[in-house]
Design goal:
This protein is an alpha/beta fold. 36% of the residues lie in helices and 22% in strands.
């Protein structure tokens, strides 16, 4: 993490099944691996797949008072309803990373005090043979914009979070990170 960013309060949001909670877990793991303070608070509707899902992640060099992020300085929005809901809650000067595959109207938000980083993450992943990894493409984009950890830590977090039964997915997730970083 850069010397200027001592804390990041992040909300990741989208439909259930898009990997929102997994993406948050990867980011939270980065802080754990760097021996920093971290909180990860998932929230999802009663119908996980297809319903709404979001998680609050806080990374800090100091103790975290509350795991709930009500005014994020970073937002990862994977669908239109999530973008519409959380963009207005963001802190001025924050970074909003959106997947334009499903967020088609960013003009609705009249925030000029938030940096908008829009990429077609799900489409990029699918075209690269990484279907279903748009969430990790967005993590890569968020890292490129904020440098919330050391680059090597991102790869280590992927290795840490991908379950052993899905070991073949480790390399694909790392490729998705790179797509987002370069995208």
């Amino acid at each position: 993490m850069s010397a200027t960013m001592r804390e990041m309060r992040l909300v990741l949001a989208g439909f259930g099944g898009q990997g929102v909670l997994f993406a948050g877990k990867v980011i939270a793991s980065c802080a754990l691996l760097e021996d920093r303070e971290v909180s990860w608070l998932p929230s999802y509707g009663p119908e996980m797949r297809g319903g709404t899902a979001n998680c609050s992640v806080t990374l800090s060099d100091e103790a975290i008072g509350s795991p709930l992020v009500t005014a994020p300085d970073a937002l990862v929005a994977m669908n239109q309803p999530s973008f519409d809901k959380f963009i207005e809650e963001m802190e001025a000067g924050g970074v909003c990373v959106v997947d334009t595959t499903l967020v088609v109207d960013t003009a609705a938000a009249e925030r000029r005090d938030v940096r908008l980083c829009a990429i077609p993450a799900a489409t990029m992943a699918e075209e690269a043979g990484l279907k279903g990894l748009g969430n990790i493409v967005l993590v890569g984009k968020l890292w490129a914009e904020t440098r919330f950890c050391e680059r090597d830590t991102l790869d280590a977090a992927i290795e840490h979070c991908v379950p052993a039964r899905k070991a073949a997915m480790v390399e694909k997730n790392k490729q998705a990170l790179t797509l987002g970083i370069e995208g």
